[in-house]
Amino acid sequence: VRRRSLAAFAAIAVVAAAAVAVVLVRGRGDAPSLGDAPARAGGPSRDLAASPPGGESSPVRPARAPRAPAAVAELDHEPPPLPPEGYEPAPRPPRPQRTAEEERAMRVEGLRLLDDRLASLGAELDAAEAAGDADRAAVLRVRRARMEETRRIRQAELDAR
Amino acid sequence: MSSGARVALLAFLVAGCAAEGDEGTVASLSLDERPGFVAGTLAYDSGEISFEAAELATETFEMVYELNGLTFSYLVDRAAGVIQMDGYATANGEDTQFTAEDRDAMLSLATALDALGADVTTLVDLARRIASGMAETPDSRELRAEVYAERDRDYVSICWAKNSYQMASHDDNNYDWGADATTLDYAYVSMHAAGPCSDGTYFYSGGSWVCFEPDHSTTIEYAYGNCLGRCGANCGTATQFTWDCLDHDECVRTGHSTASLWCDDEFTSTMDDWASAPNCGK
């Protein structure tokens, strides 16, 4: 009887362990794993609300965990000498800020750069279509549409200033 | 293919991930160079990345990369100091983000182009600089951006500071730029190679140099290694050193990951440096 009970217990334990394993495997597969690439075909995939707790900031990846330090004895090179006592790096000079006029001028240059590239992209697209290169033409159409959208955004920003 | 085109097929060891402890893998790079244009494809262990770089006009260049279903473009007019960047889903032009696999692809390409040495065309040099820079893109960084590149305003080259200790800092959710916890008083700007820890940087702690990542420590003040201050990921053939690249390195090596949102602004400040700052030489 005792042997039968032990056998029954062992069988139950094996089944239970298998069930737990199935749950764990399914759970791992079902859960979104950290660092998963977003669906390229979809829309915006950034999800700042999904930031991990604890103050670190990445929406999909946690802070890098520190690894075990390597002892100084393992250095295979000559480290730089420590600075002499009292050494202080020179303070960084401040950088000049742009005036509103200068900012506007840069934005106008940005629009001009987009316009120039849109013109040459149009010529490249015409050439691809004329050559019957459908794959290249499809790539260029997406790129042009995206750049046209960028231009609209930048123009609206300039107009709003 | 037009006459005069230079086509190269190179097989080599990609060791760009060595700082993360990965073993190098054999990759092959095919390159098609013509006057004013270069295109290449890199097949590596986890995928393929291709790029085109073209000189569109005097001092105007465009680099376009395709990787993992993402297209990333970097259009720069160096004379005007204006850059237009964009990244989107290749298939339909929708917004997307840079993730770890994209950083790996860019780093693999940068490493492959580094293997060509210092004597390369402007286009190859730019293509690898941008790839190396993008290999540090935070997950949360919006890929469409217009940035400006005026010397000593938007970027400041610090070639003069090479092989010297300089202050480096970042800001984040808890601290301002220059706060003790986010500042290294003595960051050694140099081409010293990476150490064996996760980000390859040595810090002076307890009387010796130790390779580890301190987390906003107020007692760690000295650092060097993994080309601290160099623009782009890890070490490489390009030798651009700027304040912005130094601060970004400091951000991702003293408590934040490369993917961290809190290093977004430091990263953004480096984007113009890649195409604009001069190489500092050996």
What does this molecule look like?
The complex is a heterodimer of chains A (161) and B (282). Chain A has 161 residues and is mostly helical. Helices cover 53% and strands 0% of the residues of chain A. Chain A has 3 helices and no strands. Chain A has helices at residues 2-30, 100-130, 134-159. In chain A, helix 2 packs antiparallel against helix 3 (134-159). Mean pLDDT of chain A is 72; it is low at 19-68. Chain B has an 8-stranded antiparallel beta sheet with strand order 1-2-3-4-5-6-7-8, with helices on one face. Chain B is globular. The two termini of chain B are 36 Å apart. The model of chain B is unreliable at 14-25 (pLDDT under 50). At the A-B interface, helix 2 and helix 3 of A face strand 5, strand 6, strand 7, helix 1 and strand 9 of B.
SSE succession of chain A: HHH
Mean pLDDT score of chain A? 72
Oligomer: heterodimer
Give helix % range of chain A. 40-55%
- Largest interface, counted with CB-CB under 8 A? A-B, 63 and 83 residues
Helix residue percentage of chain B: 10-25%
Q: Roughly how many Å is the radius of gyration of chain A?
A: 30 Å
Structural class of chain B: alpha+beta
Distance between the termini of chain B: 36 Å
Widest sheet, order of strands of chain B: 1-2-3-4-5-6-7-8
Short description:
The complex is a heterodimer of chains A (161) and B (282). Chain A is mostly helical. Chain A is 53% helix and 0% strand.
Observed structural traits:
heterodimer; A: 161 residues; mainly alpha; 0% strand; B: 282 residues; alpha+beta
What is the topological layout?
The complex is a heterodimer of chains A (161) and B (282).
Chain A: H1 2-30, H2 100-130, H3 134-159
Helix pairs in contact in A: 2-3
Chain B: E1 6-14, E2 25-34, E3 37-44, E4 47-57, E5 60-67, E6 70-77, E7 82-89, H1 100-114, H2 122-134, E8 145-148, E9 164-169, E10 183-189, E11 202-205, E12 208-211, E13 222-224, H3 243-253, H4 264-270, H5 273-276
Parallel strand pairs in B: 10-13
Antiparallel strand pairs in B: 1-2, 2-3, 3-4, 4-5, 5-6, 6-7, 7-8, 9-10, 11-12, 11-13
